[in-house]
Amino acid sequence: SNSLENAILRMTVSRGSALGSPFALSPGADPVAAIVPRAVPVYDEKWKSEGASAILVSGWRMSGNERYRAKSGNFLDNILASNLARESGATEALFTTQDGLLAEGAVSNVFVFSDGAVLTPPADLPVLDGITRQAVLEVCDGLGIPNFEKTIHSDSLGKVDEMWVTNTGWELLP
Fold it and tell me: Which of 30, 50, 53, 80 has CB 3.0 to 4.6 Å from 90, enough for a Cys bridge?
């Protein structure tokens, strides 16, 4: 029991305790599950009306690396990038691949509106195919808004009509 009226729940399932080495994979180990509640953060209302700011973190996501498509407990890159954003006075850090392709945010998925369509980096790039990301694409489909998973080069970001990020807590943040 907790005193939270509005919370985000984070569920983590580990591979369980390894026998022998703490880094060994043990097929017979029982998984360990934990659910941790946290208050839904209160965000600056100006972000919704005026837009938030972001920095680009170049080359931190490697194309073809499957690890980024799994939601894991390894958040070091995300934490370091979020700290860089905060130190720069920005709300979010946006990762690019080594080829300059937009991948995802440190805590978000990225979308742009350009030439009459909603675009988001394809799930075969190093992005987490998040629940809120999928919800945005489904809403676009339901409203008849053209939407595509398409590579977006970071050099083209100044030419898009709109840009926003999504996650469970922010929902949709311009």
Answer: 53
